[in-house]
Amino acid sequence: MTKILIDFLNAGLIEGVNGDDERLKKMERASITVAKGLQAEPLQLIGTILAALDPDVSASDPAIARADSALAAEWSALRSIHPSTPINLLRAILLDACSQMESDHQAAILWFTAADTLPLMRLGREETIIRDVLMTLAKRTETLALDPFTSAQRNKPANQVPKVVRRDPKMSPAATKSRTVNRDALLLRIAASAGPTYKSDPQKPLAGTPNPHWTTQGGTWSWEFSDRMNTLLSDELDSLAKDLSAQCSQNQQDLHAGLVQMLDEKLASQQLWVREALNANEARSQSEEVRLNVLWWSEAMYSRSLCCGYRELPAQVASVVMALDLVDDVTKPAPASIGYLLAEAVHRLPGAGFGHEYALLELLGALGEARGRIPKTWSERLATVPDEGRLSLRDLAFSALAGQKALVLDRNLKRAGLGAELKLSLPSFAKALFRQEQAVQLAGVHR
């Protein structure tokens, strides 16, 4: 049984189990079904983790509906136990499904989406459980960002991991069947060398050209015997030598083929390892170069996309532009330190310090009012906001920059599970946009 479901149960957040382990197993199978769907469609990870974080998520939310459908397929009596949608139970299933993601890239999507959303949620007894899950996702994301080679090795399918070939060359050649002497035929040839007939049929001459003399005839017999025995032994030894040579030749070929195969497999494994090591080294070099470029960027405070300094823009707009400019200039996923460097850079903007907080609705309104300061070609690069499901801070910012009316913004705030009175600083806002835009791009959507 998965730990997350047990933790939710122990925290009193799941009702209707009544000590029935079979019901827990049904929930676990539903979680596995949801996880398989998320593996196939990584973009759904964003809405799924946002729904799992929100205690006030609607029963009509697509992620909640998928979990409800998966559970109903396993538990036919669900509605008799839970007449209304069991939100906390379904949130636990969604969270458990997210924890089953095998790819570190998928873990990064989840972490980047949730990292800055979690502090804004009004969580209760489930907060510790969720934080433990997110901490694991954070560690996997940081490993992927700083050490892609180790991450790639861990995420590689089993059939693609190089195997060390251990083969005993002595056992490679196929066993060759030894030749057996035809004893009856050899006996008759020896008998023919010794005399004209043999005891098996004294009246019948032996086949071929047997010795016409018997041993009583002295030298005449011995001369005939020697000639015939010489031929017999020569034929038999030549045949044995030929068979032995053929067997040795076959064994040598098999041994050669076995050694070649072993060397080919080992060479292929080494080539794969070297190629991956070179790729990892290149990735690390690029990471170091990115850090140097980011340091230069933070000092210059210049936007290459808008060809102006960030201080020339309204602070609210500058915080968004800085976040998106930085996303374009870093490898993804970026180490956590880069997000914090971005926050420090935004902190240096006039009126944008950590101690200066904006009401969220006020901040979104300021983005909408200042959108005229941003070239249309730049704002058109922004990816569209999802039509359904939960929204992130990144989605709210993009909808404001798209010129959404106040009524739409208010509705979007409810879809994000956030109150209009919520306050946050621009450095925190920019860091959230930076991470959540990475999540969207890692899921396959690019600006």
Please provide a written account of the structure.
With 447 residues, the chain is an all-alpha fold. It has three domains: 3-157, no CATH class; 169-284, no CATH class; 301-442, no CATH class. It is built from 18 helices and four strands. The protein has a two-stranded antiparallel sheet. A two-stranded antiparallel sheet has the order 3-4. Strand 1 and strand 2 (308-309) form a beta hairpin. The longest helix is centred in the middle third of the chain and has 82 residues, at 219-300. It is elongated, with a radius of gyration of 40 Å. The protein starts with a helix and ends in a 5-residue tail after the last helix. The model is unreliable at 169-174 (pLDDT under 50).
Q: Kindly report how far apart the N and C termini lie.
A: 41 Å
Summed over residues and divided by their number, the pLDDT gives a mean of: 85
Order of helices and strands: HHHHHHHHHHHEEHHEHHHHEH
How is the largest sheet built, in terms of strand order? Answer: 1-2
Major sheet: 2 strands, antiparallel
Contiguous low-pLDDT stretches (5 residues minimum) are 169-174
- Class per helix and strand makeup: mainly alpha
The percent range for strand residues is under 5%
Compute the number of helices: 18
Q: How many discrete structural domains?
A: 3
Helix % is 55-70%
Rg result: 40 Å
Number of E-type strands: 4
Q: Shape, please?
A: elongated
Strand and helix map with partners:
Blueprint: H1 3-10, H2 21-40, H3 44-53, H4 62-74, H5 78-81, H6 87-99, H7 104-114, H8 127-146, H9 148-155, H10 183-194, H11 219-300, E1 302-303, E2 308-309, H12 315-329, H13 336-347, E3 357-359, H14 360-369, H15 376-379, H16 393-401, H17 406-415, E4 423-425, H18 426-442
Antiparallel strand pairs: 1-2, 3-4
Helix pairs in contact: 1-6, 2-4, 2-6, 3-6, 3-7, 4-6, 7-8, 7-18, 8-9, 10-11, 11-13, 12-18, 13-18, 14-16
